[in-house]
Design goal:
With 316 residues, the protein is α/β, with parallel strands linked by helices. It has eleven helices and ten strands.
């Protein structure tokens, strides 16, 4: 059996994250478990993120390895580079906008005790600035998402593999890493969760590992744009695993007609306009009405990405 230097390695992929890297790095510097390394992968430095990380390295508070890509290669490349550089038995993913608890490392490690092979997930609790989008849609949808996740059956929790998760280095090697074909926003996580599930890896979704997430998509336009790109990324998952694993959305009734109609017009430009418009009037509408309009824009953008993937032009 390979001998590792550390019990755990924390992988933090980042692009344009200089203003938020303090969330994970400050909280990681206060861990009860001390035997771990942090690997920050800067996916093309567009805002001096590397200098921010270097300040933490110089402070000596954390054992940090810094990897900097000369240009944007995508989040999957950043994740794989971090995982492959780790010298630890357990590898933990922690995104650059997450604030963790003081026992975060210890809790992740505890689930990997013994001989069982396991993949461990913690949800994120989204923290929004007090915007019209947050008041009408964000808080409500975030709460609903977490409630649904915690009541999901054991054969469905692979859907929730995301920004706060861990597996052993041996498991990562067995799976072969994140799929490099995912370049737009989204689905590389769902793909990894499904690959773990299909490989027979026991998956655990632990409420003890829930963390604060200072979410980037704080407007309806931003959320809809991500939905458009995520919808486009879905085609890779379907080509790889088949349509039946996650069936294509098929909204019914008047709602379905509205979703499909708006999806036919949804592009990078129109989702920006739709989202900005509803955010500008949301506080003047009843909360439930504003939430429905926001849901319509976001759901339509997602369907547009599925039906017309070439509309998602920008690589994240």
């Amino acid at each position: 059996m390979k001998q590792y230097q550390y019990k755990a390695a924390v992988i933090i992929p980042t692009r344009g994250g200089s203003a938020k890297l303090h969330y994970p790095l400050d909280s990681l510097s206060q861990q009860t478990e001390k035997n771990f390394q942090v690997i920050v992968v800067v996916d093309g430095d567009i805002d001096n993120s590397a200098n921010i990380v270097q300040e933490y390295i110089d402070s000596g508070k954390l054992n940090i390895e810094l990897i900097v890509f000369e240009e944007n290669q995508g989040r999957v490349s950043a994740l794989n580079a971090g995982y492959n550089s780790a010298d630890a038995e357990i590898i933990i993913r922690c995104d650059d906008d997450i604030q963790v608890k003081s026992d975060y490392i210890a809790q992740h490690i505890s689930y990997h005790a013994g001989d069982r092979e396991v993949g461990v997930m913690g949800l994120v609790h989204n923290k929004f600035p007090n915007t019209p989008h947050a008041r009408a849609y964000g808080y409500y949808r975030d709460k609903k998402f977490r409630e649904e996740a915690y009541t999901a059956s054991a054969d469905q929790i692979w859907h929730y593999w995301a920004a706060n998760c861990s597996m052993s280095a041996a498991t990562f090697a067995k799976i072969g890493g994140y799929d490099q074909r995912y370049r737009r926003y989204g689905w590389e996580d769902v793909d990894m969760g499904y690959m773990l599930y299909k490989a027979g890896i026991e998956l655990v979704l632990s409420p003890d590992l829930e963390v604060n997430h200072f979410i980037a998509a704080t407007t309806t336009a931003g959320r809809a744009r991500r939905a458009l790109h995520s919808g486009a990324s879905r085609q890779i998952f379907v080509e790889k695993h088949g349509q039946g694993v996650i069936p294509e959305p098929n909204p019914q009734g008047i709602w379905g007609i509205c979703v499909r109609f708006l999806a036919s017009m949804s592009t990078e430009k129109t989702t920006q306009w739709f989202g900005s418009t509803i955010d500008s009037v949301a506080d003047k509408l009843p909360q439930n009405i504003a939430e429905k309009f926001m849901a319509l824009i976001i759901e339509s953008a997602s369907l547009a990405g599925i039906k017309y993937p070439n509309r998602a032009k920008v690589i994240f």
